[in-house]
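Backbone-to-sequence.
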């Protein structure tokens, strides 16, 4: 049996979300509610930032679509003279602006779909974990590419990084989303000139007790079972735990110059 094409599989994955965040208003409501605490729930990405900074050498302008709080964009800002962070969530952008972003960083509040009407093409365009609820992946990629004069960076992961999330999915009988692999297949199906980089990042969380660990992991298991399942990733620290794991960021670098 042949699999449906990657765009169809992506669409099926998006439409299978119980949260129905494929409805833009629902996704926007989610991000508006998440904005104030987004940064504390997310890992820093030092290796990804290092790789992007090196690769952005010579780019005069950078646009991130779905820039959110600027977690990734702001550490890149001093590598590029003109920087735009675009997002449809005003509250996510308000977090970005509250970080005293430098004057050459502009925040633009609009959707990916409307972006070509609001921002000019930039040398480099970045989209990091911002396509997860886009049913029309082909359309979204086409828009991103139109906005890019030289190169497009697509960052995703395969959802295999955090042990507690993998366990939660296994408990719920849900498969891993594998968005990075699907995105890679989609870009290949478009016959775009792409290079794939895998970047290892480390995440560490300190939790004061087994109860705090269980609450963090949101696993429907007793504390003793959570401790047993996550044991390879745990180190005792006083009364609490250091929980640490590695995960892979997949960076697709699409060459757009010939367009
Ligand atoms: C998972 S966050 C990623 C933020 C940032 N790229 C990062 O890595 O920290 C996804 C962001 O994409 C934005 N977003 C999702 N769909 C969008 C769309 N269609 N148009 C504009 N922004 C969108 C959300 O509002 C949110 O801020």
């Amino acid at each position: 049996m042949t699999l449906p094409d990657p765009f169809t599989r992506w669409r099926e994955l998006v439409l299978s979300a119980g949260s129905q965040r494929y409805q833009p208003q629902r996704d926007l409501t989610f991000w508006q509610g998440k904005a104030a605490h987004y940064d504390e729930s997310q890992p820093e990405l030092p290796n990804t930032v290092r790789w992007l900074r090196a690769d952005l050498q010579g780019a005069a302008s950078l646009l991130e679509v779905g820039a959110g709080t600027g977690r990734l964009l702001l550490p890149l800002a001093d590598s590029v003279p003109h920087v735009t962070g675009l997002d449809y969530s005003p509250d996510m952008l308000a977090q970005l602006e509250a970080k005293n972003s430098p004057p050459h960083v502009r925040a633009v509040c609009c959707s990916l779909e409307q972006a070509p009407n609001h921002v000019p093409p930039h040398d480099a365009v970045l989209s990091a974990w911002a396509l997860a609820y886009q049913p029309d992946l082909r359309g979204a990629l086409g828009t991103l590419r139109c906005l890019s004069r030289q190169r497009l960076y697509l960052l995703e992961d395969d959802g295999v990084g955090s042990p507690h999330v993998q366990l939660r999915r296994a408990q719920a009988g849900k498969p891993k989303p594998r968005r990075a692999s699907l995105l890679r297949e989609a870009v290949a199906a478009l016959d775009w000139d792409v290079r794939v980089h895998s970047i290892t990042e480390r995440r560490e969380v300190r939790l004061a007790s087994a109860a705090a660990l269980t609450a963090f992991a949101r696993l429907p298991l007793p504390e003793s079972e959570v401790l047993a399942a996550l044991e390879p990733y745990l180190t005792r620290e006083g009364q609490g735990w250091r929980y640490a794991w590695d995960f892979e960021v997949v960076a697709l670098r699409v060459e757009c110059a010939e367009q």
